[in-house]
């Protein structure tokens, strides 16, 4: 069973995988069924297919009341060969190698048109950053300086020059990531930038904080990190469709969002990237008329670090 087939042929299976990726302690079949809103037997079938694709693993836990042990399912952040590379990464085997191995394996195993290397690189770098900060306590309410320090300390094991250079109440500046990505930058500067940005954003996600990155305007390869401005609940759930409306006429953008939403099932999530004053309000008015839920509004970035206003909608019940 191919990984790509396992994910793309079932939105429910994708949702289950996202739930497990966000759960450090793991979940039982009944837990998953309750969170997704499906019968436990259906949940068990999805978990079996995810396990066969090596995207999920499980351990057995003895029940206090006796009987058959309960299976506790957890997401596998990497395929087995990727995991071996990531967990064996040391200063002599740069972290970027784990990223490149994952990128090559995912590209070579993909059927049909090859995925965009920057989009795929962004997703893999975020997963790698998330994996290396997994297990840390939530920093959602911590100041940005503390968040940056935790990330720098965790990743300095792979590049000793990574450190926090300066911090204020609004931002923190870190250095050393250019050295970490130097082997990649020598061949592909765009991909190196995506690797650095994704690594930091993924680490922030593991700490429960959405981060914005600015490594374009600060000299000497310094990266400035901020907490992303947001309204509404911080949402890390699986997005079923993304629509980039930047550069479009506002009315045309709303119409395109309406069309995209018709392709989704009730309860699924649409991510809209927009720009300009008044755009969020225009989308919010449309969502209100259609009874869709506006879950969050964030000042965010795309995989190239370009600014965007990110809106997340949940489709109304039919």
Give the topology, please.
Elements: H1 3-8, H2 11-21, H3 29-36, H4 40-52, E1 56-61, E2 70-75, H5 80-87, H6 95-109, H7 117-133, H8 144-155, E3 163-167, E4 172-175, H9 177-180, H10 182-185, H11 189-206, E5 211-214, E6 223-227, E7 230-232, E8 241-244, H12 250-262, E9 269-274, H13 279-290, E10 293-301, E11 307-314
Parallel strand pairs: 8-9
Antiparallel strand pairs: 1-2, 3-4, 4-6, 5-6, 7-10, 9-11, 10-11
Helix pairs in contact: 2-4, 3-4, 5-6, 6-7, 7-11, 12-13
Question: What's this entry about, in short?
Answer:
The protein is built from 13 helices and eleven strands. With 318 residues, it is an alpha+beta fold.
Textual characterization of the structure:
The relative contact order is 0.09. The protein has about 325 residues and is of the alpha+beta class. Helix 3 crosses helix 4. The longest helix has 18 residues, at about 190-205. Mean pLDDT is about 80; it is low at about 1-10, about 80-95 and about 230-235. About 45% of the residues lie in helices and about 20% in strands. The protein contains 13 helices and eleven strands. The strands form three sheets. Strands 7-10-11-9-8 form a five-stranded mixed β-sheet, covered by helices on one side. Strands 3-4-6-5 form a four-stranded antiparallel β-sheet, covered by helices on one side. Strands 1-2 form a two-stranded antiparallel sheet.
């Amino acid at each position: 069973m191919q990984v790509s087939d396992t994910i793309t042929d079932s939105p429910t299976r994708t949702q289950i995988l996202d739930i497990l990726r966000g759960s450090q302690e793991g979940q039982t079949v009944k837990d998953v069924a309750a969170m997704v809103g499906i019968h436990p037997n259906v949940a068990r079938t999805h978990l079996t297919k995810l396990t066969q694709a090596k995207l999920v693993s499980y351990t057995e836990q003895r029940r206090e009341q006796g009987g058959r042990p309960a299976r506790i399912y957890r997401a596998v952040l990497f395929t087995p060969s990727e995991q071996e590379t990531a967990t064996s990464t040391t200063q002599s085997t740069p972290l970027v190698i784990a990223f490149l191995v994952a990128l090559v394996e995912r590209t070579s195993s993909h059927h049909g048109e090859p995925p965009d290397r920057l989009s795929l690189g962004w997703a893999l770098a975020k997963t790698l950053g998330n994996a290396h900060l997994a297990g840390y306590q939530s920093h959602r309410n911590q100041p940005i300086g503390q968040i940056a320090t935790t990330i720098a300390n965790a990743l300095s094991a792979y590049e000793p020059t990574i450190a926090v250079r300066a911090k204020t109440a609004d931002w923190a500046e870190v250095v050393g990531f250019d050295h970490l990505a130097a082997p990649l930058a020598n061949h592909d500067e765009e991909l190196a930038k995506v690797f650095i940005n994704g690594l930091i954003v993924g680490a922030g996600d593991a700490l429960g904080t959405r981060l914005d990155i600015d490594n374009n305007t600060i000299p000497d390869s310094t990266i400035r990190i901020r907490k992303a401005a947001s309204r509404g609940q911080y949402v890390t759930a699986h997005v079923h469709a993304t629509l980039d409306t930047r550069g479009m006429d506002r009315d045309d953008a709303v119409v395109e969002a309406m069309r995209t939403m018709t392709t989704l099932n009730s309860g699924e999530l649409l991510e809209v990237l927009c720009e300009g004053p008044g755009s969020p309000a225009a989308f919010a008015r449309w969502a209100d008329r259609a009874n869709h839920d506006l879950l969050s509004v964030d000042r965010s970035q795309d995989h190239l670090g370009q600014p965007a206003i990110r809106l997340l909608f949940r489709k109304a019940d039919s």
